[in-house]
């Protein structure tokens, strides 16, 4: 059986565009005389549609779109994801479903049984879990059709008390198909392959897997749809971070792109470029602005933005104060020259002095401190926002995950922006990204990479005056944030008790700042944002 | 049987304080020769503990605290809420449980069956639902003990496919006890009573209901614990918005506080005062700062803050520009005088001119517009934050729900703050709050109440230049936000089609601003914040 997999980039709620893409792929499949074409989970609505699902009108539009697509399915069967209404009075009002369409109509609808409700996922917020599974039939072949998480209960600590494949396999299907919206993190592709391989082996039949590609605000889908044989060996693999259309049959052996040879940093790099690009394209934005400090974070963000949006669409702004070093100026200018981008240079000293003058009565006799440092950071944020408001540039935030974790940043200052590009990348990894960017051609001046990190908000300031060195800080942050190790476990792992308590307290007491950050492109299994939900008012470890 | 209900105000993760309060109440119960004392849902950890639940260390502390309390239960039985570990490999790792303690030890543990996962609730994120219910025994009496949502499947559109009471009633219990963490909204107390009454009637036994009181960041618990007889009639009711300790027996008839006579605006008023107060008390903050514009929003927030924190702890700052009216100055000063609060007056014109001067090259030849208006709002935000950083005041945000809905506010300007006080109160309701505040004594000058709303960021500006009148806007916002009516339904209800589309587009395209607002005290069934999760990048209705 000739099968087409259409790995496409959808936009939440853009029915017109999503339907157009799906129809176009169906037309292509027909030309190729394909028997079955498969699309990803909730492709009609885009993923995740979030609380749009609570609007009856939104669901009606999904249904109309699905029926419109069904009418195109002549001489070909299509499988695609769409929310459907639960006809029962009891239970949640919706299902997360897969439509099976043929002969111009909907011939079967399969509902998702296992509803991921952790990290960024909120599926039980909207959907009723399916309790009775059945195989579908396409051209006389029995197929076990499941939706994403339905195959994931095969992990060592299974999150659900039953697995739909246990029922489906009793019907002796010839093939498994899984349609997914499985988001990227730097380790996810390998984990995904391992889980899918275990399924193919356990049930002893081939497996087709179809994933989303593209970014939806902070969530990045990496594609990598694939086919495995009944032994769990990869027999075909689709592109990562790009739309793709592929033909398989049950004995297919398309050359794998072999994702394993791609390094973690390369994957993060690709994900961030896609994340920036889709944030702009899906909102019809073209131009970005960002503050350039002379440090490594803004240098890396500038490079990524230029790659995603084009050098003519990115405006770096250098805003020196009396505390900015000469090197910051020359290094920043050298970077802009290497990238061939225009820049603005706007000194902030006069505005700063006017602020201090305005506040002289209130601040009279007090030593300069955090308040004065924050004023500088906020003047820069305001200048960037003023240019954004005047010329329509979207402000890219340049904070890294280490700073955001410990609250080493100024709310309404350097924490401003429409999108945080490297807010899920620890400082020590930002250096690796810089080296990766410089790998082919030295774009980021070496001086920016080797100098000691500094906010340059007072004379001779260094990050290490306030924070532990990043190579001490980042591993503890990783264990606390990604691995959810508590203080006792961290100390038992050999970390200094005082350091652990100091860092955990900083992380927890700065939750209020993270509440007000821009959306952060998610590249790790635990990013700040909707996937990590901590109380602002809370005494635990604070 | 003499039963004590302890309606207490807990703090998430503050084990020391929570345990202290619980032990104190148990000691009091012992003195009163009570047989059973009941506390609320997850009182050991505070509610909602959110992702703290993912830390093994946090769960260990809960368990230790529960055992410590159990050891106090000599000659009295205590029921209290605590997370527990699910011993099964399959399913989520935790249960949301009720401990039953007697003879110095834990004698039974009951798990919650129905896990609210909608609006602000995320319980299925953490907990496995209980599937086999049983009654507990206290002094030989059989009691159907359930946890909050377990009794709520009696609604007309039940969200769950089974109800634990259906099983429990088969054991012929004499009494129902429900421990809860049921958050306030302006209509919730009545809905709650109706649901509880339906349970008592349906199962024909008396019902004891014990709720949290106090605010946890944006979520406000209003207390109102109660007892109903087997006919569903209220026989005892506890205080609203305050801690309370009450003794009941199964034939009790404590005079009800009769919440029904309290108006919606009075309830909102009480909730906001508690919300501000707990945000400060639970973080050991004492002093608040806010910008005073001469408009009704900041006037109302100032009054609420003074009531919650004391007049000596609230600093209003008036920051006039060249566009501020004379009336704004005189009205603001009159308000401060009426409230006997000190204020600061800091003109912003010079800083504004210095900004314009700094940006003259970039802005050269362009007409003043939104960018210049936002600069003024942001200067005010920055001055407030500078004072906050210097003197430790927490900035109260004064935006109302109507503005936040349509994006009529400046990000990093008037949208700054640690806590949004009236961000869940529509403009038309802010007027009602003002009148309510003025009811006993005219605190807010009449001029502030009657003048046309204006941001005063350009000459003769009025909100109605940009927005529909609030009495047109608010009903449509209410239907769209609280009632989830889509565009077609709104038009069918008789609203102008153009107006509906204009408003819905404003709401949806301003999601990015709401992503960066401070936490908003929740007083309606659908507040902006964690209870309303919409995509930032999304084309639906935009």
Mind explaining what this structure looks like?
The structure is a homodimer of 542-residue chains. Chain A is α/β, with parallel strands linked by helices and 542 residues long. Helices cover 36% and strands 17% of the residues of chain A. The first copy, chain A, has helices at 15-31, 56-70, 164-168, 188-203, 264-281, 296-309, 326-339, 349-358, 360-363, 370-391, 401-406, 427-437, 446-450, 463-466, 470-481, 487-492, 497-509, 511-514; strands at residues 3-7, 36-38, 77-85, 94-102, 105-111, 136-138, 141-147, 175-179, 207-210, 213-216, 219-222, 226-228, 234-237, 244-248, 288-292, 314-318, 344-345, 394-397, 419-420. In chain A, strands 5-4-3-2-1-14 form a 6-stranded mixed β-sheet, with helices on one face. Chain A has a 6-stranded mixed β-sheet with strand order 6-7-8-9-12-13. In chain A, helix 5 packs across helix 12 (427-437). The model of chain A has no long low-confidence stretch (mean pLDDT 96). Chains A and B meet through helix 2, helix 8, helix 10 and helix 16 of A and helix 2, helix 8, helix 10 and helix 15 of B.
């Amino acid at each position: 059986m000739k099968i087409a997999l259409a790995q496409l980039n959808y936009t939440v709620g853009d029915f017109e565009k999503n339907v157009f893409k799906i129809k176009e792929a169906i037309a292509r499949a027909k030309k190729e005389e394909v028997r079955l074409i498969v699309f990803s989970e909730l492709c009609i609505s885009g993923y995740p549609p979030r609380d749009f699902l609570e609007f009856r009108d939104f669901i009606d539009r999904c249904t109309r779109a699905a029926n419109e697509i069904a009418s195109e399915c002549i001489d070909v069967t299509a499988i695609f994801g769409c929310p459907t209404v639960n006809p029962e009075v009891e239970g949640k009002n919706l299902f997360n479903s897969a439509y099976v369409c043929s002969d111009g109509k909907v011939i079967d609808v399969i509902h998702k049984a296992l509803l991921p409700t952790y990290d960024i996922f909120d599926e039980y917020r909207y959907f009723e879990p399916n309790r009775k599974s059945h195989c579908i039939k396409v051209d006389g072949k029995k197929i076990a059709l499941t939706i994403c998480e339905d195959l994931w209960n095969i992990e060592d600590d299974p999150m659900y008390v039953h697995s739909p494949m246990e029922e489906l396999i009793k019907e002796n299907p010839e093939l498994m198909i899984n349609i997914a919206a499985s988001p990227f993190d730097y380790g996810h592709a390998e984990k995904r392959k391992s889980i899918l391989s275990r399924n193919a082996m356990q049930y002893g039949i081939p497996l087709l897997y179809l994933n989303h590609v593209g970014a939806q605000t902070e969530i990045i889908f990496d594609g990598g749809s694939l086919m495995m044989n009944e032994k769990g060996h990869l027999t075909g693999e689709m592109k990562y971070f790009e739309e793709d259309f592929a033909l398989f049959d049950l004995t297919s052996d398309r050359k794998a792109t072999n994702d394993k040879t791609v390094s973690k940093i390369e994957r993060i790099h690709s994900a961030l470029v896609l994340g920036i690009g889709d944030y702009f394209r899906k909102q019809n934005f073209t131009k970005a602005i960002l503050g350039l400090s002379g440090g490594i974070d803004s240098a890396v963000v500038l490079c990524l933005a230029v790659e995603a949006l084009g050098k003519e669409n990115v405006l770096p702004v250098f805003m020196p104060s009396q505390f900015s070093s000469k090197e910051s100026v020359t290094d920043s200018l050298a970077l802009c020259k290497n990238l061939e981008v225009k820049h603005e240079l706007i000194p902030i000293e006069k505005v700063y002095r006017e602020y201090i003058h305005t506040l002289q009565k209130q601040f009279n006799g007090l030593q300069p401190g955090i308040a004065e440092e924050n004023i500088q950071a906020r003047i820069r944020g305001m200048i960037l926002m003023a240019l954004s408001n005047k010329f329509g540039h979207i402000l890219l935030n340049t904070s890294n995950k280490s700073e955001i974790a410990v609250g080493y940043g100024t709310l309404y200052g350097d924490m401003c922006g429409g999108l945080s590009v490297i807010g899920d990348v620890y400082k020590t990894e930002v250096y690796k990204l810089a080296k990766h960017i410089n790998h082919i051609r030295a774009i980021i001046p070496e001086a920016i990479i080797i100098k000691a990190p500094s906010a340059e908000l007072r004379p001779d300031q260094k990050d290490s005056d306030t924070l532990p060195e990043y190579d001490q800080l980042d591993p503890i942050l990783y264990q606390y944030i990604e691995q959810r190790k508590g203080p006792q476990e961290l100390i038992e792992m050999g970390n200094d008790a005082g350091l652990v308590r100091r860092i955990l307290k900083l992380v927890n007491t700065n939750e209020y700042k993270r509440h007000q950050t821009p959306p952060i492109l998610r590249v790790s299994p635990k990013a700040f944002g909707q996937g990590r939900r901590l109380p602002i008012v809370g005494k635990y470890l604070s």
